[in-house]
Amino acid sequence: MDFARRITPDAWRPRGIPGLEPAAWTALRSTGNTSVVAGPGAGKTEFLAQRAVYLLETGICPAPHRILAISFKTDAAANLAKRVQERCPPELASRFSSFTFDALTKSLVDRFANALPAVWRPTRPYDILFPDKEYLKDFQRGAIALAQPEWRHDISKLDLFRFEADVLGNSKLPLVAAKATNYQELLCNFWWKKVLRLSQPSSLTFSSLNRLAELLLRSSPHLLAALRSTYSFVFVDEFQDTTFAQYDFLKSAFMGSSASVTVVGDHKQRIMLWAGARSDAFEQFEADFGAQRVPLLFNFRSSPELVRVQHVVATALDAGSIPTQSQAAAELDKDVVQVWSSSHSQGEAEYLATWMATDMAARNKQPRDYALLVRQKAEVFERELQPTFAAAGLAIRNESKMVGKVSLQDLLVDDIAQVALALLRLGTRVKAPAAWQTAWSAVEFLAGVDTADASGARSAEAELEKFLVELRTLLDAKSPSEASAAAAVDKVYSFLDMERIVRSHTRYQRNDMAQLIRDGLSIHLAECAESTGTWTDCLDLYEGADQIPLLTVHKSKGLEYDTIAFIGLDDKSWWSYTPGNPEGLATFFVALSRAKQRAVFMFCSGRGSREKVSDLYQLLTDAGVVETVVC
């Protein structure tokens, strides 16, 4: 968009939505640092997308400057980028960069590791480390062997799985390594020695990469200047989940610069303290960056009755919580929030499956309008519920499970995995205009075809048509199986060209994520192929069509469903919970706030008691929720 076509700020209007609430307009037009506190259903992602379009279309963010958006989950980063692309001309949307914190910091380390002080420089290449119990035990033994006698007791009592969150994440790397003066410093020094030098190649966790990237900015003024000159506006989504290492990175990158930083989130949904999230992220940001706080008060997701009950829980988290205003129409006039009590898990499962099947039929809903939420161990509940739901004609799918080294949830939203799926859809000969658009846009992008290059576009389209003829021939000749699924994936990736994919997508550069996605796609497609007789059914199963999602509350963040059923609200599933615990209350609040029309909380005495979680039930009682014995 040239200067003559720019829209004046006063004339600009939201794209693709009717409008914004008054407070959102204030935050959207801000050119300073802003802290946007927005509860569930406030449309945080949509607000950020609209702000990006506003800044680009009005020229407030002029070329060649870019907007940097940082999210915590891969699907959230992809969703935000997609919304901007749908609402903005391509030449402007190309100046919007959407990353996760981990992808951004890893990319910087991968590209500029040579600028790190030699003592902190990893090998090229290095491995990504996911430390298990044995690795951490070995680390603890090594640290004890090196420690002064008076430190050994503290190290031996260390909660190993809290080390990265509580110790490493809170410790900035010095430019020059220093001798330890306490046991925490010794632990950090030994950790870095172990992951950088004793491991060949180096093995780095994402927390370690966050710390290295922050050091990189402090040790390389030229890189810092380049980052600041590139991004004049910065967004951080789900800011309540920011760790100490991530906040230090943000602070080193942009505090004191001319960049305008907007953070968005909800302290009532702070459920990542266990992973090292700061408990004071908003307050610290507002102090350090001189940011203005703007609360959003609309809830576009949940019905008025759900919002009323949510406020009871919100008040337990924050006595000063301001009531939000529901903007969603109610479809139910009673039993919007329920508590079901049962004496044994089989009866509970049978009642739930029958109830869901009946409700779907009565309200003309689809399986994916519902979700089964659990606090942890989704695979255990999957094994328990699957046979009973199947007997009722329903299928459930554990969307928290891993396929290879990526979660199913992350696989389903990955850009290239979606392109591969679109190509496979077109290979089944079924008319799929949305799949064609996805595939054609990707081919055009990967081929580097300019929108004005008619000849290049015709050539790319001919290449796509030729490939689809070959793919259809392959799929016609082979029924779904593990072997034919592998052949189909090989065919698709050969056409897309892994080198082109990595070269064209920043998030795949200098890491192995593109390969991990391909591996996960192959595994998941093969599993679906083994269970179906046609390619259309195979691809439907791949996407989870007609399946009720089962996932942990943590994995449900950012998602919404007509009806949620929270299974296992008992002391066994909530073994670490203590009455009034803020993170536990926040987890409960997140679960409740996923629902658009109805929420059901389920207690089974056969699984355990509910003494520890009695205050959660009391909150529901205080909100007027009635408990029903179902078996």
Quick summary:
With 631 residues, the chain is α/β, with parallel strands linked by helices. It is built from 27 helices and 19 strands. It is globular.
Description:
It is built from 27 helices and 19 strands. Strands 13-16-12-17-18-11-19 form a 7-stranded parallel sheet, with helices on both faces. The protein has a 6-stranded parallel sheet with strand order 3-2-6-7-1-8, with helices on both faces. It has a two-stranded parallel ribbon with strand order 4-5. Helix 2 (44-57) crosses helix 3 (74-87), helix 6 (133-146) packs across helix 9 and helix 18 (415-427) packs across helix 20. The longest helix is centred in the last third of the chain and has 24 residues, at 454-477.
Q: Report the sheet-strand fraction.
A: 5-15%
- Mean pLDDT metric: 92
Can you count the helices?
27
Largest sheet: 7 strands, parallel
Read across the widest sheet, the strand sequence of neighbours is 13-16-12-17-18-11-19
Give the N-to-C terminal Cα separation. 64 Å
Structural class: alpha/beta
Radius of gyration: 25 Å
